[in-house]
Queue: 3 jobs
Job 1
Amino acid sequence: MFEHFNNSVWHAFWVLVPVAVIVFLVAFFSLKKGCWYFFDPKHNRDESLKKDEGTFEAHSARYQDLAKLVITLSGAAIAFIIGVLASEKTSVTAFIKKVEATAPIAVGFFGSSIAFLVVFMVLQTVWYEQYCHSPDHSSYKRWKYAFNMCLGWTGAISFILGFAWLARNLFKS
């Protein structure tokens, strides 16, 4: 049933769109309605929270470092797949045939992972800058939080799906 589903990079799109929608909806509806979110704990008006917790920059660096790692590994996976397909061999082994069969969708997953995570990093940076320069720090709305969560998690899920799809197709008998 799924043998022809590997034939296009765009098939990854059909898997990832529902995943992204579900992640966005879960993130969006798990948040309080009608409010904004503070990047920095020191701006929170809740008295039970410590005001000297600092800024979001340390957290942002961790998130962006993880995104950079996944982007690097996704790029390396794409390079590996292309290298296997581009190598000139006189005899084509069963392994190469399996890579050829699953390469389009796997490249789609890894490429999508790169795209989602680059947009995640850019929007996180842009929205944090807007937040820092907003007089009352109310620019980070519910939909922005959910959308950024959607981008980050869908990028990570796409990366995992790329390797899972590749492994499933390479190691099945």
Job 2
Amino acid sequence: MDLTGLLTFVCLIAIAVIGVIVTVVVLIRRSEKMIETSPEAARETRPSNLSAGREDKPTSPDNLGRRDFRPESSGRIFISYRRSDSADIAGRIYDRLIDKFGRGPIFKDVDSIPLGVDFKEYLDKKVSECSILLAVIGKHWLDASDASGKRRLEDSSDFVRIEIESALRRGIPVIPLLVQGVQIPHEEHLPTSLRKLVYRNGIPIRPDPDFHRDMDRLISALEKYIG
């Protein structure tokens, strides 16, 4: 075989080898893509919700942006207030508490009392489910009266009286929240069933710029009840 024929033969062999290598590389790439897109591979590579043996809770609309959301709580907070006395400040207090603990562990309004039930029994049950009761006391909490001029606290069916009586009777901690610059009422100004309230250590909740500072102090105290 002359030199020209030898060179031609070598070139053909080289072309054939290169063709085989290209074919193998293409087949390998195609196999890798098929594995990556298979359902089995997707299940294997999907991030797990388990971290350090704990299943992470899914994000819900209620906990978006919340600094310290607790989806499951071992305690509950009952907010007792009189609308004619402190509805606005009670609303601000409630907002701060749900920002910290979520809506679940906090009971604030009696609007959800089912029709046809005994509201005294219902409120008593709701208080019994709580770990602590917050009694919001403003300027007209003590002297609020009904249409006949009778003080509401003297009425045994008054919502506020029922709530606080239930907590005191059960030994549930009661924190007076003193708003609008008021002091704790004198014992002789309260019905007998509520007089223990004056010996419960309370906290003033002042208007801005002190509101958030006072609420931080209250939240710190509540954390031991909301596990």
Job 3
Amino acid sequence: MAIFSPGILDEGIPALYLDLDTLVRGDVARVRDHIRAHSGIHMLKSHYVPWWPIQHWAGPLIGNKYYHANSSAIGFYPENYYWLFDRFNTIVVGDSSETSKTLRCDDRFISCYCRDTLRVFPASLVTKFSAEYMSPSHVYEQVRSRLPWVQSRRQRQVAVTFAGAALKPEMLTKLKLGDEVRYKRLKTYWNHLDFQNYWTEPVA
């Protein structure tokens, strides 16, 4: 949450936070341009049903429910979210109206309090490996990966994050082609040597 604190990041410049288990494979300037073009705070898709665009208008119907996005990647203008840091600290020191569920992790907190300005990065820019490259069925994933528009989207991705204990880089580097990878109810056969090389090749 410290990235939202005044004085940490320069004002007027789009900020992009990435978890350390995120693989950068494209021009990050494309993400910067997306943040500039679309106001708000940008996070990763989490729920399969992308209802985040309507939650502002659906507020009276859904009550205190909110789209729970993933914070492995966050894009924003720092000066627009100083209030979020203040709000977090106010709650941490004691707010009897706050529920423990909202404070369970940072992405829940951000999703809850930024629901009116929350946006989700398009999968052609930043995505989770589990959401983009894994499916409940091996057959479905093999068919999906051959679709021209899916192949085009994957080739254009700037960053892929490996959220989840089963998908950490130190584990992925040990995989062989064809090994089955599972995460929750999702699975795939490993065929991403380019991803593997990213974590194993020495930095020039």
